[in-house]
Amino acid sequence: MELKTDIEIAQASRMEHIAKIAEMCGIDEKYVEQYGNYKAKIDLKLLSDRADRPDGKLVLVTAITPTPAGEGKTTTTVGLGDALRKIGKRSVIALREPSLGPVFGVKGGAAGGGYAQVVPMEDINLHFTGDFHAIGAANNLLAAMLDNHIYQGNALRIDPKTITWRRCVDMNDRQLRFVVDGLGGKVNGTPREDGYDITVASEIMAVFCLSNDIMDLKRRLASIIVAYTYEGEPVTAGDLKAAGAMAALLKDALKPNLVQTLEHTPAFVHGGPFANIAHGCNSIVATKMAMKLGEYCVTEAGFGADLGAEKFLDIKCRMAGLKPDAVVIVATVRALKMHGGLDKKELGTEDLEALKRGLPNLLQHVENITKVYNLPAVVAINRFPTDTEAELKLVEDECRKLGVNVALSEVWGKGGEGGIELAREVVRLCSEPNGFTFSYDLDRSIVEKLETISKRVYHADGVELTANAKKQAKKLTELGFGGMPICMAKTQYSFSDDPKLLGAPKGFKITVRNLKVSAGAGFIVALTGDVMTMPGLPKVPAAEKIDVDENGVISGLF
Fold this sequence. Notes:
The chain is α/β, with parallel strands linked by helices. It has 19 helices and 24 strands.
């Protein structure tokens, strides 16, 4: 029987015992905490014990602005890791964990696809090792302690109208975006307007992914601002004496999860902040561990390069002291034709004019990586059977004008064998020196940093702050947070804050409606357009097709 779906391919594969995968990486068994036969957590002590060992090359995989046609960023990341092994390079992959919200909603999981997947894909896409449950518990413990403090006399003089901390759940549930709680009389708390975020948008998730160790985690947790006093002073998790208990809930979750690809390449899958509303990168500890264990660490950042790559470079690399050696920008001819105005139903036929109209999206991402960040890049065309030679040549010719090579990627159907051309180009790029720079300096004002990102990365005419956002920028500066990096919360479907503006739009401004400090994570979140921190399910959720049989075999999971 021909295997057609990702889950069928994954379930038909033969996995190696996780102890063997750890041994391949050179991980002594004393660091390995097994979760069954095919998953393990790796003790953070490995990092300190190997501090004097050289790091491997760091390769970032990003993509064009996403469309319903699909790009295949995670699939390319996994396939590239496998391909590097095929050409004799010790590669280790570092990915994010999927959120249950998209898994049961519309986007799907984050384990790759076809013959370029990490396994066990069902576990990874569902509960995995329980990290997200621990993050949600820590988030909601802080919320409970905050409301309890107010109920028990409010010694810190917290103004309930200024509470910024929300509860979270790892599910797309629009009904919980805005709620009123504390009803039913005095014994049930203080009535107030409240709301939920999805777990991957929680500041705890960002703190978790940006912490270097347990003590750094505790320090960051204690710095989280949850509300303000009647006098306008910030109230932190440390003030509520919550940080220690929160860290206790997270201590095991902080250990990176080791799994494998279908071709047994070691892969760390750890942490999972959304890239449109958070910083969209896997944990620092997982990335550093992969770099210590491999000659090449292949990692990815969420959504398009304007979101995921920008935050990877301007936030994660800045905080972790990382310097990428090469960047892969994933694109498909189908998606570029959608950016050129073609309907999804018409993508299977050759249309060079639509492709020409859509190509500026890819070229703008390429130029950002090579000119703004001064990093070497290669474009990986995730090939579909309907792509014609003329279409592929057009993409290649236009990229070469910018001094960037194009490599065809066929990893979905061929696994690592289909990514050898891409792997060789990545190795070549990693051997070249680069002058990596950030897109903005931290000593600029909040507004100046917003302007710089909007103009240099999005190619907007500028930024407009609502009256409320202007007040918040002034207040945050007065409180001493003006020197933090910016985490833009923006639609993933456009360079602009309007999801309908495809391609490489011009003549627009970015509207910032809200600014909030994530003091534990160490950045300021700028909410733009209509972006929300709690998604909703689509008309036909993916959950309707997921099932399990009497033997415990899951079906319908992609």
